[in-house]
Amino acid sequence: MAERMKVLVTGGAGYIGSHTVVELVAAGFDVHVVDNFCNSERWILQRLATLCGREIPHTELNLLDEAALQACFAAVKPDAVIHFAALKAVGESVQQPLRYHRNNVGGTLALLQAMQDHGCQHLVFSSSATVYGNPESCPIREDAPLGATNPYGQTKLVMEHVIRDLLAAPGSLLRAAILRYFNPAGAHESGLIGELPRGVPNNLVPFVAQTAAGLRAEISVFGDDYPTRDGTGVRDYIHVVDLAQAHVAALRALRDGGDREITVNLGTGNGFSVLEVIEAFSRAVGRPIPHKRVARRPGDSAECWADPALAEKVLGWKASRGVDAMCADAWRWQQGLSDTPTAARR
Ligand code: NAD
Ligand code: UD1
Q1: What pLDDT band is residue 339 in, cutting at 50, 70 and 90?
Q2: 138-148 mean pLDDT
Q3: Residue 95, exposed/middle/buried by CB under 10 A (0-12, 13-18, 19+)?
Q4: By alpha-carbon position, which residue is closest to atom 16 of ligand 1?
Q5: Ligand whose nearest atom lies closest to the CA of 128
Q6: Is 24:247 a contact under the CB 8 Å cutoff?
Q7: Which of 84, 109, 126, 159 to mutate to test the pocket of ligand 1 (most atoms within 8 A of CB)?
Q8: Model confidence over 33-47: pLDDT tens digits?
Q9: Fewer CB atoms inside 10 A, N or C side of the chain?
């Protein structure tokens, strides 16, 4: 294998992918981005060039276009793949299950085939805490029961199974890290890259950011009668740069030997309630942010937070940024968004 690893990053223009590209380049990896920009913007590549101090080579393609994907592998000859590209909106997946299965599962099958055909042995895969369904208890360990409560979650479970089947196949040389993210939030501290939700954000932190910016009137707090310390839902929010750095650690762990399969939670091990997140964001902004309490959102669980011990043991990684940094960075990014070509469109 090349001394300097070449990493193909699918979905590299997206939220988590773009932050990971920055960390990969800083760590000395060669990076090639693949994206069809179905949920991201081409100008992110210019921001990446600014942050990385060099152009980031990329190929615009849909993973479902197998001929284009095979040609890309033949040209780039990657040693490793980090696979972010997927559709991720839970509600939309309920409305359009076939589209979600086709894009997420179909795209992953095409990618794994190309990896096999071109002798690419290292895979880091974006999974999600959604594979734990409605968790029975917290903190959640990797051996907790699995289940999905929506088609998006099903696609993650199916993709995990496909990767494990490939790992178990006779003669397989694949080495794979399956990373189960808890609640990614925040942005790069430069304010140059961050999350770009389309339409009304479903997730809490971007909704809070848009409310702080005056784009939304007030936050709806979904449920205040959960059995948690203040009655609102508790989640494990992880700073996107910590998450990005975990991908670098995972690549190194795969490259440097040890287990052929790694499956780990990526979280902080700390839960924050909805009200605590709103308070932290208010501190970052320097004023209160309007919110009201409404009914629970169907399908939500009271709490969901990780036991991150295995990730620390296997990857030598743990999250270092707290919720205040997350809110300050998300706010910086949100404020800069009005200067981008995207502001009027999304
Ligand atoms: P994102 O939508 O910002 O990024 C995904 C990128 O993949 C986008 O740039 C999109 O254009 C691209 N893409 C999608 N389908 C494609 C296809 N068929 N061909 C080529 N490109 C395609 O999402 P994100 O938040 O960065 O999430 C990255 C990964 O992490 C996803 O697999 C997601 O399911 C997973 N994940 C995200 C979260 C979260 O809260 N953001 C939580 C858990 C897991
Ligand atoms: C959601 C998805 C999950 C996905 C994750 C990351 C659902 C049911 N689950 O998880 O599959 O992996 O996003 O993308 O959609 N909240 C409010 N008001 C809001 C928004 C959210 O009170 O306007 C609350 C929620 O009830 C929850 C917390 O904030 O308690 C976090 O919500 P969210 O950011 O949507 O993440 P999850 O529900 O954990």
Answers
A1: confident
A2: 97
A3: exposed
A4: 85
A5: 1
A6: yes
A7: 84
A8: 999 999 999 999 999
A9: N
